[in-house]
Design goal:
single chain, alpha/beta, Rossmann fold, Alpha-Beta Plaits, 3 domains, seven-stranded mixed beta sheet, four-stranded antiparallel beta sheet, binds 1,4-dihydronicotinamide adenine dinucleotide, binds 3-(4-hydroxy-phenyl)pyruvic acid, PDH_C, EC 1.3.1.12
């Protein structure tokens, strides 16, 4: 791929434009909000102009409800040879694109499963897609050129391509992204009017669980509306489990010893199912997170500490597979969890300790 156009230079558009520019692709940037395109350009993501000749690939990184119309316009104005998008919902888009009169042979749907709870070009990161799945949803008429360009895009962004049918994709993301987003919002909403004394003692668990609730409401309204039936199905299953959990809790606290025993067993079963489901969530490059060992290290809140820790891993010859950081603003220290190959974890923890790092037991 020699040239690309990114339309919509928010979080996702800027991130992929940065990745493409760094790999030597000539990137053009466009956004309905000109200042967003200019900001992306100033970050090194490309040039904030439309191309004078059709580019190899146009990537539409606009909100889901806008993709079909931008696709039809872009094809009419011949911005690119082939087009793809990054929208979070696929079946409704393919239908809307057909209705908008788009040439579907020159289009392939796409969805990188990577993101953040922030919007706009300043949240963009060139490495956002590294090792993440990127779903492609070719239709029956999608050209080989469109598929090849999209595969090259995914590879240039360091992501892993996964080809799926649009319905299969939408049901999968309802389960692993959209319904969890709503539940995160429900949990966080409980805090809105809670007592300050309660919220103040929040720990990492509630922060992890509600991080995505910080996402832009306009984007999520769009996503929920476009995938409503599949999301409602998942929520209905949560509702059954919640009802059972409430009953079990009442039984456990109630006077009937037999019912209390059954309630406790039901709760234990729910927690066991939770462990089993969590263990199935893949880590980096498709390996399950359960297959890595965690080395927790306390670091002080000074610039460069993290870089020093990574350098220590490099000196010890240890590959960091993933990293989780619990950084509490205002606190002097943070906890960094390094995920490494279990066969090197003990040696790594010992060598860090010997080098003066505080490794938690
Ligand atoms: N936020 C996330 O974590 C993820 C989002 N996505 C998808 O990526 C797409 C973009 O989302 P974000 O980058 O998060 O949003 P964003 O709000 O950061 O950026 C969207 C950009 O599109 C521009 N825009 C809106 N309508 C336009 C139009 N008609 N023509 C040109 N530009 C237009 C906006 O001005 C804005 O700069 C959405 O389709 C979303 O479903 C996919 C994966 C993750
Ligand atoms: O913030 C995160 O960790 C996400 O996973 C965000 C996200 C949001 C929307 C998508 O369609 C895909 C990913």
């Amino acid at each position: 791929m020699r040239s690309a156009l990114v339309v919509g230079t928010g979080l996702i558009g800027t991130s992929l434009a940065l990745a493409l520019s760094r790999r030597g692709v000539d990137v053009y940037l466009s956004d309905a909000d000109e200042s967003a395109a200019r900001t992306a350009a100033s970050l090194g993501a490309g040039r904030a102009v439309l191309p004078s000749q059709p580019v190899d690939l146009a990537v539409l990184a606009v909100p889901p409800a806008r993709i079909a119309e931008v696709l039809a316009k872009g094809q009419q104005e011949d911005w690119a040879r082939v087009f793809t998008d990054v929208g979070s919902v696929k079946a409704r888009l393919h239908d809307a694109a057909a209705v908008a009169g788009a040439d579907l042979s020159r289009f392939i749907g796409g969805h990188p499963l990577a993101g953040r709870e922030r919007s706009g070009p300043l949240a963009g990161r060139a490495d956002l897609f590294e090792g993440r799945p990127w779903v492609l949803t070719p239709g029956p008429t999608t050209s080989r050129d469109a598929l090849n360009q999209a595969l090259e895009l995914v590879s240039l962004c360091g992501a892993v391509p996964v080809v799926m049918d649009t319905d299969e994709h939408d049901h999968a993301v309802a389960l692993i992204s959209h319904a969890p987003h709503l539940v995160a919002a429900l949990m966080a909403a409980r805090l809105e009017n809670a007592r300050e004394e309660s919220v103040r003692i929040s720990g990492t668990g509630i922060r992890d669980l509600t991080r995505i609730a910080g996402g832009a409401p306009e984007l999520w309204e769009d996503i929920l509306a476009a995938n409503a039936p599949a999301i409602a199905e998942v929520l209905a299953a949560y509702a059954d489990d919640l009802t059972a959990a409430v009953q079990a809790l009442h039984a456990v606290a109630g006077p009937d010893a037999e019912a209390a025993k059954r309630g406790a067993a039901d709760l234990a079963d729910l927690l066991r199912r939770g462990n089993a489901g969590h263990a199935r969530i893949p880590g980096k490059h498709g390996a399950t997170s359960a297959s890595y060992a965690v080395v927790p290290v306390l670091i002080s809140d000074r610039p460069g500490e993290l870089a020093r820790l990574f350098a220590a891993a490099g000196s010890a010859g240890v590959n960091i597979e993933d990293v989780r950081i619990d950084h509490s603003p205002g606190r002097e220290a943070g906890l960094v969890e390094l995920l490494v190959d279990p066969t090197v974890a003990d040696r790594f923890a010992t060598s860090l300790g010997a080098a003066g790092w505080t490794v938690q037991a």
